[in-house]
Amino acid sequence: xxxxxxxxxxxxxxxxxxxxVVRLIDQRKLPEKIEIFDAKNSDDIAYSIKDMLVRGAPAxxxxxxxxxxxxxxxxxxxxxxxxxxxxxxxxxxxxxKAIDFMKENGFLEAAARRYSNEIxxxxxxxxxxxxxxxxxxxxxLTHCNAGALAVVDWGTAIAxxxxxxxxxxxxxxxxxxxxxxLQGARLTAWELAQEGIDHAIIADNAAGHYMKxxxxxxxxxxxxxxxxxxxxxxxxxTYEKAVLAKENGIPFYVAAPGSTFDFSLSGGQDIPIxxxxxxxxxxxxxxxxxxxxSTALNPAFDVTPFRYVSGFITEYGIFRPEDLPKLRRSMEKxxxxxxxxxxxx
Length: 345
Ligand code: MRU
Known about the structure:
binds 5-S-methyl-1-O-phosphono-5-thio-D-ribulose; 4-stranded mixed beta sheet; alpha/beta; Rossmann fold; 7-stranded mixed beta sheet; 2 domains
């Protein structure tokens, strides 16, 4: 992704491996500062994923892949390293896909690099297919951050916007702020600003207002896990955006690489939903919002039923939910995507 660092435009990845160390942009610090965290062992990797220094399903997978390659180089107990990394975040399917890929490939650094390169080039393809849905002067709404930070490069939901913008189309993006962790306000807005894409941050509860006023042409979001039926999990708040889009006749697309599809699950009821600390809801920047007596509930994801989805934008093309068996057949012929993780629940 393009980044302006001290007045200079540079290309940076969300996570990479250098001299046996896994380096990642600490996303908790953005947009105030670009700080790089060096993970030196599997404990650091598990911490980075759990504490969300790195987040977004594909980026979690790539971090796990590099982390396991590093653990192998370090001579760590690999069963223990896998166990630690596997237990960090339960919803993002890419995590399990990446772990299985690394197991099958002997935890080699070359395999982790291949995994990372595959994911980013597949996301570029998502951008190319998704670009076809974007007309000139489109007004697009997105939720959470499904940009380069969430992938390594390009993004999923943001990739079509990058390519549309680069090809000269004029766009305007409504960026849902995405409480409680504000991935929209802090990360998506930052990425769009770096690319010079016109946008505005809106409060999560403002989306319906703009949709009803006829000011949103298209919704594109990412996903953490997509089941065989097309029901999918994404950041909490996605479901209500999908319902609002259908109510207002607005196309609603989900952008994700093959690594996010879990065909072992028949429907959304089986997706494990991560519950995070109530403190993420109760506090902002260390300041408590509600009374001392109150607690909070904090599901990190919700499940949107397939009937709200106009299509899934993937590296294989765009598929309606009823056409997912076709996607499954394409994935079965694709050596990189073929393996199905054994226990991703
Ligand atoms: O909790 P997060 O920030 O990891 O959640 C991220 C999302 O919900 C993204 O939309 C999803 O992982 C797709 S990222 C390309």
